């Protein structure tokens, strides 16, 4: 569902369309020499750009839109527009230079993307420095339910949300009427209500009020209602059916893209690093303790199937390695083991798991079989993580929830981040996670032990 546009969106988007079309046509005129009617090609090129942009939502950038989402959409726009340009060029002329088309597409797109981000970051600074481009908002719900969003609004002024009032209905259900009166008197733009704190009749009343007064209404789900965040609506004839979870990684084309990336990246690491690092570590591991160089551990993967997860051995041989998770200052860890665990080098053999198609470079981290059985009972939606292949690194790990599970909060948040990743996957998100992982390794992670 697309949200109501802000006060400036009605001017910014048409202006963006116009500037982008001017850039495209100027670059095409100076870079590409098409031997045909100079009016037909610019019109066809402009039409192709607009159709693709509308289909992908290239101009649907909101104040809460993430940079990675913009880049992901821009990449798709670049590819599809490139295909359309090649099709137009070779339809009209066989003499068109391929390098000139590539230069045209890349140059014009680079300028357009620069212009797009200039507006995006200018508005962020404008909201902070001048207090403009704001949306006046109110929250309704008990303090615990609305606290995260309340904190977000007050700490992220660059998003341009001005929190006017918080209505606590924990002990007073009559505040729904007070909320509606307050919204009308104070020119409120958006209302955010906690779903778990309202009855069905109250939600219906608030929805009718918002619709009749042109107020943007959004609901805050609790943990049990999180599946509504990314559901898909399908029609069987004229009958609406809701699919509770839209996992992007289940799409066939997405699987191909991710698998190609995994194979290429894994071969690069195996040939470039493991080919010379393995013999060195093998000698060091053998010198300090008896046992194999590699350690195999049964873990749960795609569709909960078990597989052998490979690591460089970092502990002395013991009977509890497959049962007990490692903890801080664990006496089982060897001296060389402490080093390779701190730098995450012990995880590198898992790139062989990626080649075997047991794992992916990025995805939810796999757990030991005993822990999977325990968390499946304790943690809601834990097993949903097994709809996709596990990863060497993941969004949860780069967000501070890696290593030992010290409390229920750790595993609950790990599941939340994993579900978000599954439902919002993009190749750019994978690349971002990889770069953050490398940065964390170089910086040192306090939970790496």
Give a nutshell description of this structure:
This protein has 449 residues and is α/β, with parallel strands linked by helices. Helices cover 52% and strands 12% of the residues.
Structure description:
By secondary structure, the chain is α/β, with parallel strands linked by helices. The protein folds into 3 domains: 9-130, no CATH class; 135-220, 3-Layer(aba) Sandwich (Rossmann fold); 250-443, no CATH class. Helices cover 52% and strands 12% of the residues. It has 14 helices and 10 strands. The protein has helices at 9-31, 40-56, 67-92, 98-130, 143-155, 175-185, 200-212, 252-288, 335-342, 350-355, 369-378, 395-398, 408-423, 427-443, and strands at residues 135-140, 161-167, 190-194, 216-220, 232-236, 239-243, 294-300, 306-312, 360-362, 391-393. The chain has a 4-stranded parallel sheet, sandwiched between helices. The protein has a two-stranded antiparallel ribbon with strand order 5-6. Helix 1 (9-31) packs antiparallel against helix 4 and helix 2 runs antiparallel to helix 3. It is flat, with a radius of gyration of 27 Å. Residues 258-443 form the Bacterial sugar transferase domain. Keywords: Membrane, Transferase, Transmembrane, Transmembrane helix.
Identify the notable features of this structure and list them briefly:
alpha/beta, Rossmann fold, 3 domains, four-stranded parallel β-sheet, two-stranded antiparallel ribbon, 12% strand, transmembrane helix, Exopolysaccharide biosynthesis polyprenyl glycosylphosphotransferase
């Amino acid at each position: 569902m697309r949200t109501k546009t802000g006060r400036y969106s009605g001017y910014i988007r048409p202006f963006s369309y116009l500037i982008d079309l001017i850039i495209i046509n100027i670059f095409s005129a100076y870079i590409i020499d098409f031997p045909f009617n100079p009016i037909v090609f610019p019109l066809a090129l402009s039409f192709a750009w607009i159709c693709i942009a509308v289909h992908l939502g290239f101009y649907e950038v909101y104040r809460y839109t993430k940079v990675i989402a913009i880049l992901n959409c821009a990449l798709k726009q670049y590819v599809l527009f490139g295909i359309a340009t090649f099709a137009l060029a070779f339809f009209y002329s066989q003499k068109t230079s391929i390098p000139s088309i590539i230069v045209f597409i890349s140059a014009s797109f680079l300028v357009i993307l620069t212009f797009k981000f200039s507006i995006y970051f200018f508005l962020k600074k404008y909201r902070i420095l001048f207090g403009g481009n704001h949306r006046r908002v109110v929250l309704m719900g008990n303090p615990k339910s609305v606290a995260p969003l309340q904190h977000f609004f007050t700490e992220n002024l660059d998003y341009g949300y001005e929190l006017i009032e918080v209505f606590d209905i924990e002990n007073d259900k009559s505040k729904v009427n007070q909320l509606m009166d307050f919204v009308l008197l104070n020119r409120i733009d958006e209302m955010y209500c906690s779903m778990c704190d309202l009855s069905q009749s109250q939600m219906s009343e608030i929805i009718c009020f918002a619709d009749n007064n042109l107020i943007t209404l959004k609901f805050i789900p609790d943990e049990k209602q999180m599946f509504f965040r990314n559901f898909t609506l399908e029609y069987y004839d004229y009958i609406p059916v809701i699919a509770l979870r839209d996992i992007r990684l289940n799409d066939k084309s997405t699987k191909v893209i991710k698998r190609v990336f995994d194979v290429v990246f894994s071969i690069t690491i195996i040939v470039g690093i493991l080919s010379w690092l393995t013999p060195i570590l093998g000698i060091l591991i053998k010198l300090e303790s008896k046992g194999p160089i590699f350690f195999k551990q049964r873990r749960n993967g795609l569709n909960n199937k078990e597989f052998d997860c490979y690591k460089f051995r970092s502990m002395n041989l013991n009977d509890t390695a497959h049962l007990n998770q490692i903890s801080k200052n664990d006496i089982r860890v060897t001296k060389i083991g402490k080093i390779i665990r701190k730098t995450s080098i012990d995880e590198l053999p898992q790139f062989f798991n990626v080649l075997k198609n047991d794992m992916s470079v990025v995805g939810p981290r796999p757990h030991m079989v005993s822990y999977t059985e325990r968390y499946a009972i304790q943690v809601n939606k834990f097993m949903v993580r097994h709809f996709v292949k596990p990863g060497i690194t993941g969004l949860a790990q780069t967000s501070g929830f890696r290593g030992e599970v010290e409390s229920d909060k750790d595993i609950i948040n790990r599941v939340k981040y994993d579900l978000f990743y599954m439902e919002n996957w993009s190749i750019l998100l994978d690349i971002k996670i990889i770069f953050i992982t490398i940065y964390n390794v170089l910086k040192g992670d306090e939970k790496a032990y």
